[in-house]
Amino acid sequence: MIKTVLLSLALFLAQVSVDDTKVRYGDYRSFMKSQNGAVAVIKSQNVYLELPSYKKIVKEKVKTGTARYTQLMEIATKNYKKLVAGVAKSQNLVLVVETGGISGYPTSDITDTVIAEVRKVKTEKVKKNKT
Fold this sequence. Notes:
single chain, 131 residues, alpha/beta, Protein Binding, DinI Protein, Chain A, four-stranded mixed sheet, 6 helices, 59% helix, 16% strand
């Protein structure tokens, strides 16, 4: 009870600020109107470093602007968005924002959870290929 009152008071006193260019999942405008629901932050770079297509870019030293780079980044970005959306939905999040992109509102960090999903997907693919 006291925790709820303190959280409500903190939310009332703090002005919520969101950098809309750092929103990775959810409807920024809807959230700002209601300022209600669970919000998380993510360190996208840490997630990208775990994605197989991005790892290829790094390992093969693929140059920015080449067709190969564009192809691999499109795959990486598609997978990133799918993974973030999956974790957000499973945790009933209304918004996921890049770390540092929101202030004045309580958040959780889903970076490690999304990375765990990347590793889980890679493991499942390996298991499928073995059978």
